[in-house]
Design a protein that fits this description.
There is one protein chain. Helix content is about 40%, strand content about 10%. It has helices spanning about 5-10, 50-65, 70-95, 115-120; strands spanning about 20-25, 25-30, 35. It has a 3-stranded antiparallel β-sheet with strand order 1-2-3, with helices on one face. A hairpin with a 4-residue loop joins strand 2 (about 25-30) and strand 3. The longest helix is centred in the middle third of the chain and has 23 residues, at about 70-95. It starts with a helix and ends with a helix.
Length: about 120
């Protein structure tokens, strides 16, 4: 049975937080690619409430912008920018839920590493 056939028979958990990945029977499914990530591949999850997530995504986009702009690279820039904007909007709309890591008790001390779109659009 192929991975795609296996996915169609699997129970999909409600993991709609990310448009590209989901959990299927305890494994990570690449929705757009139609395959499972290997069990031995390390993965990290950056939460939308974590203020440092924005810096991580911006660093990733900056790295990609220095590469040859192939369709594959451009698609990763597009999807990463979508996630950046979604998370930025979430933090702007829910400041009481934003913080460092899993807590809201600690906030980033320096916020000059990015300008929220709301401020950039209305200087």
């Amino acid at each position: 049975m192929s991975e795609t056939q296996s996915y169609k028979k699997a129970t999909v958990s409600p993991f709609e937080h990310d448009p590209k990945y989901g959990f299927v029977d305890g494994k990570i499914w690449n929705k757009s690619g139609g395959y499972f990530l290997p069990d031995d591949e390390p993965v990290i999850v950056f939460r939308g409430k974590d203020q440092a997530t924005l810096a991580a995504i911006m660093g990733y986009i900056e790295c990609l912008e220095k590469q040859d702009q192939t369709p594959h690279v451009l698609e990763h820039i597009r999807t990463s920018t979508e996630r950046l904007n979604t998370i930025m909007d979430f933090q702007i709309e829910n400041p009481e839920r934003a913080g460092i890591g899993c807590t809201t008790a600690e906030k980033l001390k320096a916020r000059d590493w990015f300008t929220p779109r709301s401020q950039a659009m209305n200087p």
